[in-house]
Amino acid sequence: MSENRALKTVNLSVIKTACSNCNLRELCLPLGLNSQEMAKLEEIVSTRKRVKRGDLLYRAGQPFEALYAIRSGFFKTDVIMEDGRDQVTGFQMSGELLGLDGISSENHSCNAIALEDSEVCLIPFDYLERLSRQVPTLQNHFHKVMSREIVRDHGVMMLLGTMRAEERLAAFLLNLSQRFVARGYSPAEFYLRMTREEIGSYLGLKLETVSRSFSKFQEEGLIAVQQKHIRILDIPGLKRLMNHTPV
Amino acid sequence: MSENRALKTVNLSVIKTACSNCNLRELCLPLGLNSQEMAKLEEIVSTRKRVKRGDLLYRAGQPFEALYAIRSGFFKTDVIMEDGRDQVTGFQMSGELLGLDGISSENHSCNAIALEDSEVCLIPFDYLERLSRQVPTLQNHFHKVMSREIVRDHGVMMLLGTMRAEERLAAFLLNLSQRFVARGYSPAEFYLRMTREEIGSYLGLKLETVSRSFSKFQEEGLIAVQQKHIRILDIPGLKRLMNHTPV
DNA sequence: CGCGCTGTTGAAACTTGTCAAAGTTTGTGG
DNA sequence: CCACAAACTTTGACAAGTTTCAACAGCGCG
């Protein structure tokens, strides 16, 4: 159950941004732009915003105005049904874009919550559309980013629709590992920013099942867990576990 | 398991298309365009293609070149994992767009299979990007279509992650009903184009579970089922069933 | 007209969820 | 800086829901 403590949307310290100096530009929206195009993009991605751990970047229902590129930190997005059930739809890390779901109805359709103190770059959407009419490279890259999100979602659907508990968790750990590598961190050792309950919600499992699966992986020597600290000891073993058809 | 009978990609009879005469234009890409803009779009959406029941419109891995707008008929998309497990990621009907997942990698990431004899309009993607740089209305509408797909996927994730079998099936039937209404058909009576197995794959259930749930709904007077022919007798009842928190 | 695909139903097995209790960590306020 | 409370995690026993396996019925296509 997602706690109902008073989550407030945050106020922002406005900071000047420079994509050209950002070491995430190879993962983020500027990807593939030349320096002239990047300069144009910088006019648009003008401000940064800090979000403290536990605070909402945006809330479902709020008018959509901008996308957010994560400069540092870690987020989750979740959707809440009328009857109170909720589901984590994703975990986002630096270089990734938040807010794409809000374009369709011009209102955000999920909540974005910082899982650690974070900083995002604000990309007003109407500016982005205007600029991408002038810069085909940017236009195409933006389309690819949206499409990648669709493909990612299909992967999650596959996970939720066909995998059993341990396979889901293995897939989850391997995915995190990959994404940390892309950011220059260790593929084998990291801190989880989310609780067992949040992992469970994302994977369609109860927190107890997540906990048990972690313990099982540990017993089998696949990983070493100590609360949120994870060390993967046997990546190929996890991979085997993930796509070994049961029976 | 998805049968491995030889599915061949189809050859097409090329037909001249006119969005302005199409009675799906309010559901499809032309939405919101004025007649001048529509004329430009028609230059791009130049050809139609027939796809026979059971045939593939495209296959995972093939180079992505165009989007397809469904003019008539019914499709499913599915993803197949290395170990052979597969998952239906969606069912698409007239007026809806196929192929968005292929933009990101420039290769299709799923298979699109016609569930009945169908006809699609071909939209070469590079033309679409070029035109949408000139026509902001089209650009924005296209972005909304992609974003809507993301929101839809989140809905499916919620379904797979938090709902039990009967809730999933109720949600599925109500969703179909709504989409038929938008096309001028009855909200309460329709033919399923897909098998129980395909429904199950989409909903993350086994075909037996789908069949049992249909029978249960029938016993409870919520629907009348006769093979693929469905009559919904109690829409509010299905809705209640769908978001009534269990216990 | 029959064979194969699709759908239905039953019983048993298995996976995951539920409930409960206890241990651990984290955060806060004195 | 310590103490206490709250939040999070682990583990066990049992219950519930879904899958598996199996048998059979029905429809439709060749």
Number of strands of chain A: 10
End-to-end C-alpha gap of chain A? 34 Å
Helical residue percent of chain A?
25-40%
Largest sheet of chain A, in brief, is: 7 strands, antiparallel
Main structural class of chain A: alpha+beta
* Most residues in contact: chain pair: A-B, 49 and 49 residues
Low-pLDDT residue intervals, each spanning 5 or more residues of chain A:
1-13
Shape of chain A: globular
This entry's quaternary arrangement is homodimer
At CATH's second level, what is the architecture of the largest domain in chain A? Sandwich
CATH topology of the largest domain in chain A: Jelly Rolls
**Radius of gyration computed on alpha carbons of chain A:** 19 Å
Specify the number of helices of chain A. Answer: 7
Describe what this molecule looks like in 3D:
The structure is a homodimer of 247-residue chains. Chain A contains 7 helices and 10 strands. Chain A has 247 residues and is an alpha+beta fold. The first copy, chain A, has helices at residues 35-44, 125-134, 136-162, 165-182, 196-203, 207-219, 235-242; strands at 15-16, 47-51, 56-58, 66-80, 86-93, 97-98, 111-124, 189-191, 223-226, 229-232. In chain A, the strands form 2 sheets. In chain A, strands 1, 2, 3, 4, 5, 6 and 7 form a 7-stranded antiparallel sheet that branches. In chain A, strands 8-10-9 form a 3-stranded antiparallel sheet. Chain A is globular and about 55 Å long. In chain A, α4 crosses α7 (235-242). The first copy, chain A, has 2 domains: 3-159, Jelly Rolls; 163-242, Winged helix-like DNA-binding domain superfamily/Winged helix DNA-binding domain (Arc Repressor Mutant, subunit A, Orthogonal Bundle). At the A-B interface, β5, α2, α3 and α5 of A face β5, α2, α3 and α5 of B. The structure holds a DNA duplex (30 and 30 nucleotides).
